[in-house]
Specification:
The complex is a heterotrimer of chains A (188), B (255) and C (421).
Chain A: H1 2-45, H2 51-55, E1 59-62, E2 71-76, E3 79-85, H3 88-95, E4 119-123, E5 146-149, E6 156-158, E7 163-165, E8 177-179, E9 184-187
Antiparallel strand pairs in A: 1-9, 2-3, 3-4, 5-6, 6-7, 8-9
Chain B: H1 2-18, H2 47-59, H3 82-90, E1 93-98, E2 104-108, H4 122-128, H5 140-143, H6 147-156, E3 172-173, E4 181-182, H7 203-218, H8 222-251
Antiparallel strand pairs in B: 1-2, 3-4
Chain C: H1 12-20, H2 23-32, E1 35-37, H3 46-65, H4 75-84, H5 89-117, H6 125-147, H7 152-164, H8 172-180, H9 187-218, E2 234-236, H10 237-262, H11 292-300, H12 304-319, H13 321-324, H14 338-357, H15 363-389, H16 411-414
Antiparallel strand pairs in C: 1-2
The chains are: A alpha+beta (188), B mainly alpha (255), C mainly alpha (421).
């Protein structure tokens, strides 16, 4: 008997209360979803670069010790950056090129900062398979175009860092940088 | 049953209260409670006081105490702008690795640098301090029972030793330090640090400001943490109500 | 394809999966339609809360482990790096740290529920014993986890507790050297504790699975302690207990949030904010609050080996609880004497906890000895004797027909024999 009346009561409740109950359930589930999303974001964001990593995501490079014809390598965001102080001859040879001849056409002007054409700043990672090309040290081979030479598979780059001989498909990449006065650059 | 539950509740409460004795400092009075901007559930942080406290640390405490867990870029948390941080860092000389000959070199700090330490290592610190090691202050407010009130009490508690008290060589009497003998001489004096904003600089003010700074240094996330906490708890109160309402609806036919 | 029966889910994807691996059928059977006594009170929430807490600990632990360095020179600073530099690192750390405390609060209440309502009695003895195994694994995990931040209390707590094993004759010292990987708690110890601390929670997941499996064979106990007689005594787990558990989860999260966001270091020790120093012992070496009663038992015996045995014994005695309690009645609701004296045992445990927090001198030694004796008295003397001597209250006919007011049954029903427990 108790079960019978309970069934009736349940049925009663089911037809009347179904909208209110469903609404409450919807709110509850939405709340749970919002809460889970907030927690999920927290946990995912913890994997983003931490504050100490972000703090060194930009570096200053002092150009004064780099004499003409000399190139240095600095680390930025875990990558080698070539900073070379080009000679007049190197600048001319970079300008004196027909774009049609280039594997990855680009003017030298598009790869330097206006008024500072003696400085070329490149990410020193070969665009073929990621080796670090030689050419910064005076004793390094520089390839036929006087720029950089990658010993892994023989790619060659000119004094503007453009690829002239494969198998690399693209020019050496350019990092974001800006001049701070005439003697310092900030990379990143 | 109810009586025993009451006994149990009382026992639990007194248990929590009585777990503190083992942490209470021997032979030193409990530090008096102070008012702090970071007190309470809605506590914030008096940025001006924290900045003055940083000045006190820089001018006074940093001569002996390191704060190796802090970096200059962290000072944004007490309201310094990027330019101010760069200027603060550049004014400090820190070790900067080795030069091309392999010799250690120094230079101006950057925002990414750790706070400058007064001594290169523990041995150098002890040698300079007659064998005592000034503790690193990055976490000092958390690392002592009594927390901010305790550190404030130590700084303001220096006094002449009572007549009957036997002081060891080179020690200083402090009312609130356990055992009353502390190796540190009184660090703060009235008017020792001049604040740019003209705030009062008696010992109590300097101590209050530096403890505010030290609390922030130990708990830089505190303000954000409490703000998020308020929202989370309110959300959970709401959710408890909603889930309870759903539960009642679902269980209506059983009850 | 012999042996495959097609499932009957409406969703074709779910049906395809379930036909080949009936996970959805299993979920529906074990957590959907599973007949559950309809008279649970909120103390029955705590098993589910423990499971939720375990998941939270594993998730926060995994993300903490992405930044933690298990090396003595790096560990302390890596934890501070998490607190200061990792995005929401402070939140991960405080949730994990306070989650450990929450885990023990929940588990201790869960155990108390089992003791009060006789959930350890036939046929749930194995379920109970698996639970004690869970408790032991939890304690090992928590102990090792506390060492990882490499603070003063981490180091000295590890030193004191690992040194205990030297109490065992002949094998004691070799065991300790083997545990340490050296001649004191040092880098090898920290490294292996990290490895094991990462491992044990997953072992725990497996044991919890066994725990729930055992439960689903016998079915749950209930506040009346009488077996389910038929469908009129039960409700399907979903939606009745899914909704009720969700209320419990919200309240539990609220308590958890109050700790994490407003009093994150309330249950901790200030000494652990000082990097470990093997040359300087803190004034008082104290374990985390959830170990305090066992610490008090350990220190109540003047003999080192005796203390170790009494301490481990206090947990091992739980294994044999189903056989120590001779009462034919399960639930304390119908055991007028037991339902009062169990609170004396609880008071003894709380008392032991207070003793554990204080120096082992003076009144605290006396009290810890009294409470330790009472702790063992409860299990080894009181329960066996009380079961035989106590006159239980009459049990109701069934869950659906509990006697209102708990008074004597009408003449006809009183003829029913006592439930064999």
């Amino acid at each position: 008997m108790a079960e019978h009346s309970a069934a009736i009561a349940g049925h009663h409740g089911a037809t009347e209360g179904i909208t209110k109950r469903d609404f409450l359930q919807l709110i509850a589930l939405s709340g749970a979803a919002i809460g889970s999303a907030a927690i999920g974001w927290t946990v995912v964001d913890s994997m983003n670069p931490s504050k100490d990593v972000l703090a060194v995501s930009a570096i200053d490079v002092d150009l004064t010790p780099i004499t003409t014809g000399m190139g240095i390598t600095v680390m930025w965001q875990g990558k080698p950056i070539f900073v070379r102080h080009r000679t007049a001859a190197e600048i001319t040879s970079a300008d004196d090129v027909k774009l049609a001849e280039l594997i990855d056409p680009a003017t030298d002007a598009s790869r330097i900062k206006a008024g500072h054409d003696e400085w070329i700043v490149l990410i020193g990672i070969c665009t073929h398979l990621g080796c670090i090309p030689l050419g910064n040290k005076p004793t390094d081979p520089r390839g036929d175009w006087g720029g950089w030479f990658c010993p892994c598979h023989g790619s060659q780059y000119d004094t503007s860092g453009r690829v002239r001989h494969g198998p690399a498909p693209l020019n050496l990449a350019l990092p974001p940088y800006a001049f701070e006065g005439g003697t310092k650059i900030m990379i990143g | 049953m109810r009586a025993f539950k009451g006994v149990l509740a009382a026992a639990l409460l007194s248990a929590v209260a009585m777990t503190t004795p083992v942490f209470a400092q021997d032979e030193a009075p409990t530090p008096p409670k102070q008012t702090w901007s970071f007190d309470g559930v809605f506590g914030g942080l008096d940025l001006a006081a924290a900045q003055r406290g940083f000045q006190v640390y820089s001018e006074v405490c940093s001569n002996c105490h390191s704060m190796t867990l802090l970096h200059y870029r962290d000072l944004a948390g007490i309201g310094l702008t990027d330019e101010q941080i760069k200027a603060v860092a550049a004014a400090v000389t820190v070790p900067l690795g080795v030069d091309d000959q392999g010799n250690p070199k120094t230079g101006p700090a950057t925002p990414a640098s750790q706070f400058r330490s007064p001594f290169a290592n523990e041995q150098a610190a002890r040698a300079a301090m007659n064998g005592a090691l000034p503790p690193d202050l990055s976490l000092i407010v958390n690392a002592r029972e009594g927390h901010a009130d305790y550190v404030y009490a130590i700084l303001t508690g220096f006094t002449a030793a009572p007549a009957a008290f036997k002081m060891s060589n080179g020690m200083n009497y402090d009312t609130y330090f356990p055992g009353h003998q502390i190796a540190m001489p009184q660090p703060l004096q009235d008017g020792q640090v001049t604040f740019a904003d003209g705030s009062p600089n008696r010992i109590e003010n300097e101590a209050h400001d530096v403890v505010t700074f030290l609390y922030w240094a130990a708990n830089p996330e505190a303000v954000q943490r409490k703000q998020i906490g308020v929202r989370v708890v309110l959300f959970l109160i709401f959710m408890s109500g909603i889930t309870y309402a759903v539960k009642r609806k679902v269980w209506a036919d059983v009850h | 394809m012999a042996g495959i029966t097609k499932s009957e889910f409406k969703n074709p994807l779910i049906n395809w999966i379930d036909t080949r691996l009936p996970v959805f059928t299993m979920m529906q059977k074990e957590y959907g339609t599973f007949p559950t006594p309809k008279n649970f009170n909120y103390f029955w929430n705590f098993g589910a809360l423990a499971m939720v807490n375990l998941m939270i600990m594993i998730i926060t632990g995994i993300f903490l482990a992405m930044n933690y360095q298990p090396n003595t020179t790096l560990a302390f600073d890596s934890v501070q790096h998490i607190m200061r530099d990792v995005n929401y690192g402070w939140l991960l750390r405080y949730v994990h740290q306070n989650g450990a405390s929450m885990f023990f609060i929940i588990t201790y209440i869960h155990i108390l529920r089992g003791m009060y309502y006789g959930s350890y009695k036939y046929p749930r003895e194995l379920l109970w014993m698996i639970g004690v195994v869970i408790l032991l694994i939890m304690m090992a995990t928590a102990f090792m986890g506390y060492v990882l931040p490499w603070g003063q209390m981490s180091y000295w707590g590890a030193t004191v507790i690992t040194n205990l094993f030297s109490a065992f004759p002949i094998v004691g010292h070799p065991i300790v050297t083997w545990l340490w990987g050296g001649f004191s708690v040092d880098n090898p110890t920290l490294n292996r504790f990290f490895s094991l601390h990462y491992l044990l929670p997953f072992v725990l997941v497996g044991v919890v699975f066994l725990h729930v499996a055992a439960l689903h064979i016998t079915g749950s106990n209930n506040p009346l302690g009488i077996e389910v007689k038929g469908p009129q005594d039960t409700v399907p787990f979903h939606p009745y207990y899914t909704t009720k558990d969700s209320v419990g989860v919200c309240v539990y999260l609220m308590v958890f949030a109050l700790l994490v966001f407003f009093w994150p270091n309330l249950l901790g020790d200030p000494n652990n904010f000082i990097p470990a120093n093997p040359l300087q012992t803190p004034a008082d070496i104290v374990p985390e609050w959830y170990f305090l009663p066992f610490y008090a038992i350990l220190r109540s015996v003047p003999n080192k080996l005796g203390g170790v045995c009494m301490m481990f014994g206090s947990i091992l005695v739980l294994f044999v609880l189903p056989w120590l309690d001779t009462s034919p009645v399960r639930s304390a609701r119908f055991r007028p004497i037991f339902r009062q004296v169990i609170w004396l045992w609880v008071a003894a445990v709380v008392g032991l906890g207070v003793c554990g927090a204080n120096k082992p001198e003076g009144i605290w030694v006396v009290l810890s000895r009294i409470f330790t004796l009472y702790y063992y008295f409860h299990f080894l003397v009181l329960l066996p004797v009380l079961g035989k001597l106590e006159r239980p209250l009459p049990l109701p006919e069934s869950i659906s027909r509990p006697v209102i007011g708990g008074g004597p049954m009408p003449a006809g029903a009183a003829a029913k024999p006592m439930e064999k427990a």
